[in-house]
Fold these 2 entries.
Entry 1:
Amino acid sequence: MSVQRTIRVRLKPTTEQRRVLLETLAESTACFNAVAVYGWEHQERNGVELHKATYYPLRAEHPRLPSQLVVSARTRANEALKSALTRKRQGRRTGCPTGSMVPIRYDARSYRLIGQTASLASVDGRQVIPFAANPHATVLLERAAGTDSADLILKNGKLWLHVVLTLPDVPFTDAGIAIGVDLGLTRPAVTSEAHFLGQKRWREIDRRSFRLKRSLQSKGTASARRHLRKLAGKVARFRRDCDHVLSKRIVQSVSPGTTVVVENLTDIRTRAKQRGRASRRRLHSWSFAQMRAFLEYKAEAAGCRVAGVDPRHTSQRCHVCGHIERGNRDGARFRCRSCGQQGNADLIAARNIRDRHLVGWASGPAGGLSVKEPIVGDAVESQHVSTYKPPALAGGT
Ligand SMILES: [Zn+2]
């Protein structure tokens, strides 16, 4: 079995190539919409029937659009029609699924990646276009055993190719080891092995851009709005970089066959709710899903796996006696009100996360089993963390 991953690369067409690709997108969109309108009017969701009704008229109408792209537009319109017609049958809000610039799905016959270029079928023959890929995408491209489909997308005026890669599978051989990871609020990540990963100042940088965002929002001028858009892109890139570094460090800190255990959070926001207004605000939109996705593919590539556990009470439970009480935790410090056990609160949370996976303690007051081990002071800082410098956010307050 192999694994599939989607990477995003940005095309760097010449002015002429850009014009050709935009024209190709426009013609493909016209085909998509024609099929969607026909299918919607005739309540037709069958691909063969849609083909019979639309293929030749569309070929005649768009003679320069390669036949594979006409077929591809129909296939995509067919998918959209199926879900729209299903929604309609269920009495949900829906309409004819047309679009203004529908992505083109390329397949093995209509595109190829050669080195750092993409060769794409278009209304003006094959276009060979260089692309830029970020470091993570480049690594995956090098590892890939092959490519599957690719979507050509116009977003914010730029042309992107979302390429599905087939990656060779690294088998997971369970070594019976589990480590818990707390995506803490005092440190970006703390493992149950007492590795403190990521930099504290990431949060300060993030908070600074949050304040900048607020002040720009309150201005409301055209120039402030322009700055806001730029800032949003910078914040997203910064967080993505942090998530990449953090997931890499976590995987580097474990050996193959390890199960990396994290909390099943849809958003760190859920967790921050327990810990006061300020933390809630500054973590408002820091996506947990992205972090988990990065962690999963990096873990898989290293012969590890990721497991999730119920997040309830992981930060309030004493991992030694099982006593659960909100008052056990005071910010970054933990002191058990029942047995007096003390330590770094994120480290104790990480051990609870691991133990919940290993022995499945209940979140009720009974506590349950636990893997006993002492908390030694505030333990080692990771050797790796000091080398990473996050990209600076421009502006400042
Ligand atoms: Zn205790």
Entry 2:
Amino acid sequence: MTVDDLLVVGGGITGLSLAVHAARRGLRTTLVEAGTLGGVSTQRSGALVRTHYADPCSARLAQRGLQAFEAFDLRYGGPAGFVATGFVYVPEPGEPVAERVELLRELGIETRLLDQDAARRIDPALDLEGVAEVAYEPRSGFADPSRTCATLAAAARAAGAVLRPHSAVSELLTDRAGAVCGARLAGGERVEAASTALCAGAFSGGLAAPVGEELALRPTAVSLALLERRVDVHCCVIDAPGGIYFRPDPAGATLVGRRTWTDTPLDGPDVALPAVDDAFVDDARARLVARLPSATGARVISTRAGMLDMTPDGLPLVGPSAVPGLWLCCGWSGTGFKTGPAVGDALAGWLATGTPDPDLAGFAPAREMRVASAARSPH
Ligand SMILES: Cc1cc2nc3c(=O)[nH]c(=O)nc-3n(C[C@H](O)[C@H](O)[C@H](O)COP(=O)(O)OP(=O)(O)OC[C@H]3O[C@@H](n4cnc5c(N)ncnc54)[C@H](O)[C@@H]3O)c2cc1C
């Protein structure tokens, strides 16, 4: 039996991206996915691609992510459905948004502070009454999760990675020294590898615990709604005071989600997500109308619930775990779509050369975690 260099567990955007970049770096790579390729969280994602973050580690990775989405065809040989609508961050009163914009600009991110009049000129559809300033990113927007994952899967295969959908891991394997050396699949088959990377989203904790790695991960459920759009276009928006994010959707809709969540127990990847109720839709629409008045009375086109892998500080767990052979790339806390292409590249580089680029020290699994601030929250 050949032993791979890398076993990737999970075929969402994170795992697929890691598989592409690892294979391109010459690592013998196998990816196993419990269901179909494309992910659980990923398929339900709001898929905003923006760079407004309070911590430099997230901002740098988001910037690399944005660059990847802008050049997706060139880098991966197919589309991601990326649309650069522009992104507006409406801060809470008293939030240090000017300082944050300054910090982001120092990192080379294209963003600026707009006063109310300038923001209205950029996006006349928004009601910004009472808002002094917003942060604006002209290059940001949103992408299409299905097209993104289909392109990454094709690129991974083209680079030589073996992708195995419908291959659920039942347990991680350890050698006599206690190091992780691969995984056993539900049918009993052993897949061995020098390194195993957990990219299993909200399900990562259940796989890591039996080998002695307790992850600070809370599986949580979130809902979103697609409402009929009554204006031609509007920016992607995070409305911190309104507690929502929204973006235009190609299906003539505005996609709107709340920035709150409920903890959900998980038995496995085939968990039934809670139904989206009318109270959620009414509340989300009322909040949307306050910022996007044209949504008044907008008809519901569809709703969906999704799963997040929340950490206490809202930052992911990326890097080697305390157990030799086991790498983590999970805990994305509702914000891991935009960074998917970039983190796969960085982690593959780390595995191949011993150093990540960009630096991912802020995501060290063993860090001390503080409770997340508003600007670290999804999406
Ligand atoms: C409603 C919603 C809105 C969001 N909005 C945004 C946004 O606007 N912008 C943004 O950047 N992010 C957003 N996110 C977050 C983002 O979608 C996720 O962080 C990202 O998709 C995570 O990708 P992943 O590949 O790590 O996880 P997933 O997509 O969940 O993939 C994990 C995969 O692991 C597989 N798996 C699990 N257990 C096993 C096992 N035992 N064996 C094999 N495979 C297994 C699962 O089947 C799944 O396919 C949103 C998420 C949701 C739900």
